[in-house]
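Reply to dn_fold:

You asked what the input looked like. This is it:
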Amino acid sequence: MSDDDRYAGTGDPDGLDRLWTPHRLGYVTGEEQPEGGYEKPSGCPFCQAPGNGTLVVARGELVFAVLNLYPYNPGHLMVCPYRHVADYTDLTDDETAEVAAFTRTAMRVIRSVSSPHGFNLGMNQGAVAGAGIAAHLHQHVVPRWGGDANFMSVVSRTKVLPQLLDDTRKLIVEAWPA
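and this is what came back:
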């Protein structure tokens, strides 16, 4: 089949590859949202995390770091204020400074225990921007390695994670400065 036949009736090809992720449609349409919705889920997991402590890796005065229960990669953690606040602009100056300091420390610690090639850092503000728990601000720290994204999540709805959360937590906790 020639390129002309392949794109007949669809306009000119744009040269971009497409990665189709139909498993995300439930999230986009809201069919898989938590009880109470994304903006006000019942039982905020970030408010509950410091009390159950199972995935918490470090605690500060105003913020804490917690492993993501559904990580993109080993070491994917989030820095959260203890205070239930949704918007970055509503953080106090002290909270903002501690979020930044914890993010820097998280990057240093993850580098020391697993040598990632890079990081994705970010906050999704609001459900429309991709925040799964929009009512409680959280800064993602996602370590990245060359070739870490592959076909498995699309083809088989499977994320390949070479390390158990408990093992990841142990490495990070032991390397986090006191």
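The domain at 36-175 is CATH 3.30.428.10 (HIT family, subunit A).
Hope that clears it up.
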